[in-house]
Specification:
Length: 372
């Protein structure tokens, strides 16, 4: 199938859900299929923050969400799960190289295992009318770009035995060499991320994105309508699976305030009103752009326990509803060395955001459920 014209339309910004591109995407990514960036309101959505290579945390959050059983089988019915990115990278250098065995606390080679867990659950959930959506975080992008400064010793070592599924004859001189190859766009894990992960998703009136979509970014990349976001999503996914060159998506990443890296929304004071300058100046254009679709923006990336001494929390409140909800509370073992005195232990407990009928927000932990 020659989709050159469709690709050119996408690059030029006129693509909107081109059926030829989606068809080829589905063929390349089988058994995974293209998921649109805008999904209608759902009865139940659960979302949780960054995993950072902590497999036990991933499983615990899924249990808290009541979407899996002890055999890791889907029991969530039509629930939609959104994990907001950064499933990988368990090392925090803190003055030491992550290539050293002693740098990472309780090191485990679980990055691939975690990604495959979410992939498998996604396939199961679809069969029951539900969905498991994993977003792309900055750490997935770091790995795609060959930057392993946060990859732990064990996760790198695991690639010493890597065999390329397309060309088993390929030889690698080290785990890092093999991992760099495997995560390169179009290769096994670069392609897998493109096929199975999303830059963002809008469900009903809730926007889920790793770090946030702020006004500076909207202006920088010239987003004028919500349909532009579907184009952006497809561009990124086609780049990851090897169908689009970096020059065609460069502007999406060449900005410290992009949707994968910005800390702006994660650092806003909790529980302030939307008309406060600290809120309004950063998301007013986003509110105007999304219109009625902008109820709340749910983000990860900035661990609230360490940055704000908070659990899951909301801010930029309008009509009793937070425009911004931060759900990364730093639960991953990756952050345990920074909490040696257990100052943040309570706020770091595993937590899940539950959304009922699009507008009712609850936090679930091992002790129960309470209103956000």
């Amino acid at each position: 199938m020659d989709i050159t014209n469709s690709i050119n339309e996408l690059i030029g910004g006129t693509y909107i859900g081109n059926i030829d591109i989606i068809k080829q995407f589905n063929e390349i990514c089988y058994p995974h299929k293209y998921v649109p960036s805008v999904i209608p309101e759902q009865q139940r959505v659960v979302a949780f923050g960054d995993i950072h290579g902590d497999y036990d945390l991933a499983v615990e959050l899924l249990f808290l969400s009541k979407v899996i059983d002890r055999n890791l089988l889907w029991i969530g019915g039509k629930t939609i799960v959104v994990q907001v990115g950064d499933q990988i990278d368990s090392c925090r250098p803190n003055g030491k190289s992550c290539s050293l065995k002693e740098t990472t606390y309780n090191d485990e080679a679980s990055d691939i295992k975690i990604m495959e867990l979410f992939n498998n659950l996604s396939i199961q959930a679809i069969q029951h009318g539900g969905q498991v959506i994993s977003l792309i975080g900055n750490h997935e992008l770091l790995n795609i770009q060959g930057n392993f400064m946060y990859s732990s010793y064990e996760n790198m070592k695991a690639f010493e035995k890597y065999v390329d599924p397309k060309d088993p004859s390929l030889k690698f001189v080290s785990g890092e060499h093999a991992k760099r190859h495997a995560f390169k766009r179009g290769n096994e894990y670069g392609k897998m991320i493109g096929c199975t992960r999303m830059p963002f998703v809008i469900i009903g009136t809730n926007i889920f994105v790793h770090a946030g979509i702020i006004d500076k970014y909207i202006e920088k990349i010239n987003i004028k309508e919500t349909q532009d976001l579907e184009n952006i999503s497809m561009k990124i996914k086609l780049w990851l699976i090897g169908m689009l060159e970096y020059e065609n998506i460069f502007e999406l990443f060449n900005n410290p305030d992009n949707m994968f890296w910005t800390r702006v929304l994660g650092n806003i004071e909790s529980n302030i009103n939307f008309d406060n300058t600290n809120c309004y100046q950063h998301i007013n254009k986003a509110v105007e752009l999304f219109g009625m679709k902008f109820g709340s923006m749910i983000i990860g990336h900035t661990p609230q326990s360490f940055f704000k001494n908070k659990s899951i929390n909301g801010t930029c409140i309008e009509n009793d509803r937070p425009k911004i909800i931060r759900i990364d509370n730093g639960s991953s073992n990756a952050f345990t060395p920074f909490d040696t005195k257990s100052i943040y232990k309570y706020n770091r407990r595993p937590q899940v955001l539950e959304i009922i009928d699009d507008t009712h927000f609850y936090v679930i932990d091992k002790n129960g459920i309470y209103k956000l």
